[in-house]
């Protein structure tokens, strides 16, 4: 959910775009990070731990901790908390350390 | 290609912005000052501080952090002597004085005569069963989602930590329409400013000192937490467990200095509890043990943003003085900044910082 | 206790209260600021120099209530939202309390708003006699409620969204 009115802030979200998260379309705005757009859509499980397969979300949202790494347009280990949404981009849960495509 | 510059500043938060402006004030025409910021915009964590800052007029007291950040960012962009590079992550400091930067997928090399590291801090984590569930965040992360992106990050939150960050973010959650179930604090007393605590109390948010999180539970995502009371030795008291249902748990349990670059440069570091982690051993000009490398803000010890701004000015003028830029002005401004820092730290809430800084000084003298 | 739950005690409050005589004369600022923190915007905001934070910015404010004109500049300026203006001379049986408010929506003049105590407990529905935004880029609203005199020292917040037209 997005905040519609705020006592202190106004939000310049940019243009509305659609991107693909694990095969399904999600709406976001060009000034939002992928993490923000996913959270606005109620999605906060971003990956699963490599050994115990436990669900994982983000922790810091400012690019420090790497808890939010996903595969974006085929590139693994993208910190989605500091990567902006673009029209048509694909965002996928990555397995393990991810695979760099040749 | 290696670019030679006079001064590089790493980090565009309150400390780095002030350092850049200070150095530019003393710099002659043609001086080359480069400010590198890893984010796409300047401001650091000021961009999400919707509350009014404390301090005096000299530190913009009474203004909201977000507007202070915009003002400083605009001033830096408007200053011809400062080149701003955003989306620029400083990767390495090398023995021969080369600094490498990742910018726009390019690997750039610089050779600055002086360097100011203002990299800030990262949020600490807390160990308890279930702490890896989605829905458990740093308080600053929730603040970013809410105040930078305008996303309602939760429906119902339990906040861990009644320091300033925990108290402030709890209030900001209320402002975004989120229910805050309670603030739990392991210590027997509230650590943050009591005026922030009173704002929460009169909004009906209970602050529970002497409590902590025993465990978090949920099938795939967080569904609730079990709280437990602590005795005076911070040991859990069996039988006092209480379940609180919530979709989000925020950890506001302190910050750690982001000092990786200083380790790379082989700056002498020392662990000081009062400064919340390993900090560089600095002299009165905020210069580290490596000549020409200065620090300011949270990387030199966790403190309020108002102090970070003044430290930024001190480090900026100190680097300018070392570069031979307008030594009289620089020296006068250094002294003013020291006085301001002393004033900000002189009260009871500054006792911890004073003790921490005294330890750093002792270790510096011990190593000489 | 304030340092444990954020709620000031009667003893805390006694230290910052004007005399009954002064209260009965008209609007006056009360700074519910009990901790020495480095902060002084209340003092610089006061147009009649009634508030001092001395000898350094780590002291709590001292208000000269004979000088204070109850203008509410300090209410808007205080970063801790800890200053309130109380007017015991509003009406024979009613007082007003001005509260710094930073939630949306803001209650409008003429509405009834739910008043809360320092512990967040509801104390009743009170008429909003004024709601105005502080000057400049401050964004804090100053909302004034008319309350029975015996609640003038109790009502310190408004429930966000707790308003109704009557």
- Main sheet overview of chain C: 7 strands, antiparallel
Strand order of the largest sheet of chain C: 1-4-5-8-7-6-9
> Beta-sheet strand percentage of chain A?
25-35%
- What is the count of helical runs of chain A? 1
Number of helical runs of chain C? 5
Shape of chain A: globular
Helix and strand content put the structural class of chain C at alpha+beta
Please trace the helix and strand order of chain C, writing H or E for each element.
Answer: HHHEHEEHEEEEEE
Number of strands of chain C: 9
Overall radius of gyration of chain C: 15 Å
CATH fold descriptor of chain A: Ubiquitin-like (UB roll)
The CATH superfamily label of chain A reads 2Fe-2S iron-sulphur cluster binding domain, sarcosine oxidase, alpha subunit, N-terminal domain
Q: Which residue ranges of chain A are poorly predicted, with pLDDT under 50 across at least 5 consecutive positions? A: none
How would the global form of chain C be characterised?
globular
Account of the 3D structure:
Chain A has one helix spanning 34-40, and strands at 16-21, 24-29, 47-48, 55-56, 69-72, 75-79, 90-92. Chain A is mostly beta strands and 102 residues long. The model of chain A has no long low-confidence stretch (mean pLDDT 95). In chain B, strands 1, 2, 3, 4, 5, 6 and 19 form a seven-stranded mixed sheet that branches. Chain B has a five-stranded parallel sheet with strand order 8-15-9-10-11. A three-stranded antiparallel sheet of chain B has the order 12-13-14, with no helix packed on it. Chain B has nine helices and 19 strands. In chain B, α1 packs parallel to α2 (65-78) and α1 (14-26) packs parallel to α7. Chain B is globular, with a radius of gyration of 21 Å. Chain C has 166 residues and is an alpha+beta fold. Chain C has helices at residues 2-5, 10-14, 20-23, 41-45, 73-77; strands at 28-31, 51-52, 62-63, 83-87, 94-101, 112-116, 122-133, 141-148, 157-164. In chain C, the strands form two sheets. A seven-stranded antiparallel sheet of chain C has the order 1-4-5-8-7-6-9. A two-stranded antiparallel sheet of chain C has the order 2-3. Chain C is globular and about 50 Å long. Chain C starts with a helix and ends with a strand. Classes of the chains: A mainly beta (102), B alpha/beta (368), C alpha+beta (166). At the B-C interface, α5, β11 and α8 of B face α1 and α4 of C.
């Amino acid at each position: 959910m997005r905040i519609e009115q705020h006592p202190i802030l106004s939000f310049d979200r940019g243009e509305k775009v659609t991107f693909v998260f694990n095969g399904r379309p999600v709406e976001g705005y060009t000034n939002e990070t992928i993490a923000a757009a996913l959270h606005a859509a109620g999605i906060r499980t971003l990956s699963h731990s490599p050994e115990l397969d436990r669900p994982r979300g983000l922790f810091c949202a400012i690019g420090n901790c790497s808890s939010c790494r996903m595969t974006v347009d085929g590139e693994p280990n993208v910190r989605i908390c500091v990567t902006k949404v673009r029209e048509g981009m694909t965002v996928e849960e990555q397995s393990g350390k991810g695979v760099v495509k040749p | 290609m290696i670019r030679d510059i006079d001064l590089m500043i790493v980090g565009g938060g309150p400390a780095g912005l002030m350092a850049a402006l200070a150095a530019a004030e003393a710099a002659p025409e043609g001086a080359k000052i480069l400010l590198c910021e890893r984010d796409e915009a300047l401001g650091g964590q000021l961009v999400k501080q919707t509350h009014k800052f404390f301090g005096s007029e000299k530190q913009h007291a009474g203004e909201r952090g977000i507007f202070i950040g915009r003002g400083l960012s605009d001033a830096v962009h408007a200053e011809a002597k400062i080149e701003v590079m955003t989306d620029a992550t400083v990767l390495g400091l090398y023995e021969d004085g080369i600094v490498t930067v990742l910018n726009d997928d390019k690997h750039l090399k610089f050779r600055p005569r002086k360097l100011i590291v203002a990299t800030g801090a990262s949020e600490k984590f807390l160990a308890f069963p279930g702490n890896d569930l989605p829905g458990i965040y740093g308080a600053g992360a929730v603040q970013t989602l809410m105040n930078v992106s305008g996303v309602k990050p939760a429906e119902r939150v339990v906040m861990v930590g009644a320091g300033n960050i925990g108290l402030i973010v709890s209030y900001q959650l209320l402002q975004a329409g989120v229910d805050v179930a309670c603030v739990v604090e392991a210590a027997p007393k509230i650590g943050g400013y009591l005026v922030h605590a009173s704002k929460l109390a009169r909004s009906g948010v209970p602050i529970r000192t002497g409590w902590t999180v025993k465990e978090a539970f949920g099938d795939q995502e967080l569904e609730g937490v079990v709280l437990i009371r602590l005795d005076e030795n911070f040991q859990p008291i069996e039988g006092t467990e209480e379940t609180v249902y919530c979709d989000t748990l925020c950890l506001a349990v302190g910050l750690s200095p982001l000092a990786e670059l200083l380790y790379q440069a082989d700056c002498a570091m020392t662990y000081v509890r009062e400064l919340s982690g390993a900090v560089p051993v600095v002299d009165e000009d905020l210069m580290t043990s490596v000549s020409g490398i200065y620090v300011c803000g949270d990387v030199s010890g966790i403190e309020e943003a108002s102090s970070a701004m003044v430290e930024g000015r001190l480090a900026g003028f100190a680097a300018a003085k070392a570069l031979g830029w307008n030594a009289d002005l620089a020296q006068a401004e250094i002294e003013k900044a020291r006085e301001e820092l002393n004033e900000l730290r002189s009260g009871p809430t500054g006792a911890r910082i004073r003790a921490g800084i005294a330890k750093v000084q002792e270790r510096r003298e011990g190593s000489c | 206790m304030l340092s444990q739950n954020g709620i000031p005690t009667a003893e805390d409050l006694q230290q910052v209260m004007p005399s009954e005589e002064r209260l009965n004369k008209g609007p006056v600022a009360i700074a519910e600021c009990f901790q020495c923190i480095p902060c002084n915007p209340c003092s610089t905001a006061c147009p009649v120099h009634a508030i001092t934070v001395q000898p350094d910015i780590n002291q709590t404010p001292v208000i000269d209530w004979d000088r204070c004109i109850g203008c509410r500049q300090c209410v808007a300026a205080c970063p801790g939202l800890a200053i309130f203006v109380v007017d015991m001379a509003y009406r024979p049986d009613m007082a007003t309390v001005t509260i710094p408010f930073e939630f949306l929506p803001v209650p409008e003049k003429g509405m009834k708003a739910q008043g809360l105590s320092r512990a967040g407990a509801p104390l009743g529905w009170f008429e909003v006699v004024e709601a105005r935004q502080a000057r400049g880029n401050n964004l804090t609203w100053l909302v004034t409620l008319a309350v029975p005199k015996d609640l003038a020292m109790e009502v310190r917040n408004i429930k966000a969204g707790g308003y109704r037209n009557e």
